[in-house]
Amino acid sequence: MSMVDNTAGPLLAGRGLVKAHGRTEALRGASVELRAGEILAVTGSSGSGKSTLLHCLSGIVRPDEGSVTYAGERLEELPERRLSELRRTDFGVVFQFGQLIPELTALDNVALPLMLAGAGRAGARAAAGEWLERFGVRGQGELRPGELSGGQAQRAALARALVTGPRVVFADEPTGALDSLAGEQVMTALVHTAREAGTAVLLITHDARVAAYADREVQLRDGALAPLEVAA
Ligand SMILES: Nc1ncnc2c1ncn2[C@@H]1O[C@H](COP(=O)(O)OP(=O)(O)OP(=O)(O)O)[C@@H](O)[C@H]1O
């Protein structure tokens, strides 16, 4: 069941985003909206600007032009301190290669965002254990990322992205490094948990099977977005 609220305005909106990397114009006026609880797939060929769009929308990178509005706040107007706070409390991110901290166990990786938000170690580890359980990797909690399979590491990375109860999860090719079975497990876990928690997901993928998990799909072409044309 979709928890998308079609009556409210978007939770996150990028408007007219332009971003160049040197002489490469990665985004040329891209606009996109994400509603609360919505799972939106952004597809497009390699180099079409998908990751750049995610970085702009999540406040990791400032666009050259255009605006990003999150829950009524214009990200470009926020001081770095407030942006970091938003990234810690309201946003979760998952990348293609999990990017768990290699020196920490899976459990401590998931506990870390809670501790950064001020939770005590014991409470954070207990909550982290519950999240690992949800993603079917509690038994691997004391292992380090290098000792996990790719799929287990990605599920731990999902737990880490969701543990603080973010309103938006940004997932950049979260299954890109996995075989199809592990990819399905990761997507099922992500979609199930996001639905349950009412978390919106901006899902970047070039894989149509992954995009099929989303409520809606938009396609980046030449740095701008078009809704996917539905085949007749
Ligand atoms: N840090 C950077 N420095 C220089 N050029 C960059 C940088 N990041 C991205 N680009 C260029 O900007 C364009 C868009 O890149 P981006 O990573 O956003 O695309 P993408 O759609 O995510 O690609 P892929 O699917 O291959 O990951 C590409 O031409 C890329 O080479």
TrEMBL record:
Classification via Gene3D superfamilies: P-loop containing nucleotide triphosphate hydrolases
Record's keyword annotation contains Nucleotide-binding: yes
Domain (ABC transporter): residue spans on this chain: 12-232
GO CC annotations on file: plasma membrane
Gene Ontology molecular function, alphabetical: ATP binding; ATP hydrolysis activity; transmembrane transporter activity
Pfam families, alphabetized: ABC_tran
Protein keywords: ATP-binding, Nucleotide-binding
Name of the protein this chain belongs to: ABC transporter ATP-binding protein
The organism of origin for this protein: Streptomyces fungicidicus
